[in-house]
Amino acid sequence: MQLRIAAIITAFLATTAVASPVEIDSSCTATSYDQIAATKTCTAITIQGPFTVPANSKIDLTGLITGTTITIKRAQKIPLKHNFEFDPFVSAGKITFAKGTLDESNNLVTIGGSDITIDGSNGSFDGSGPVC
């Protein structure tokens, strides 16, 4: 009887000790730099500006799930308070990089994985021009 109980407990522990797979979300949206790292478990990533990447920081989207789509998107246009026209600076939705000490040997954005699709038709990264 003791042998049978030991076998049952061993079998139970073997089935519960198996590593559970990484939970994959279908879509995630990052609207700030701090939210980008959490999107790596998604297969449809939207990075929506406007926001600024802190000085000396980089956007790291390496190790993505195979077949992931990344969309760079600008925010909705925001009407000015008085004349209902659109402010191009508010609606641009750029993702900018704060000035820091990184030089041309540093990649501000790194993307890695298999079969990755990037759609930048509705947004942009602004690296503030060439490093001087």
Number of domains: 1
Tell me the quaternary state: single chain
Structural class: alpha/beta
* Biggest sheet architecture: 4 strands, parallel
**Total number of β-strand segments?**
9
How large a portion of the residues is in β-strands, by DSSP E? Answer: 25-35%
Instruction: State the helicity in percent bands.
Output: 10-25%
What is the residue-mean pLDDT, rounded to a whole number? 77
| String of helices and strands | HEEEEEHEEEE
Can you describe what's shown?
- Residues 1-19 form the signal peptide.
- Keywords: Signal.
- The protein is α/β, with parallel strands linked by helices.
- It has one domain (21-126).
- The chain has two helices and nine strands.
- It has a four-stranded parallel beta sheet with strand order 1-2-5-8, with no helix packed on it. Strands 3-6-9 form a three-stranded parallel beta sheet, with no helix packed on it.
- The chain is globular and about 35 Å long.
- Mean pLDDT is 77; it is low at 1-20.
Give the SSE layout.
Blueprint: H1 2-16, E1 25-30, E2 42-48, E3 51-53, E4 59-61, E5 69-73, H2 88-91, E6 95-97, E7 109-111, E8 117-122, E9 125-126
Parallel strand pairs: 1-2, 2-5, 3-6, 4-7, 5-8, 6-9
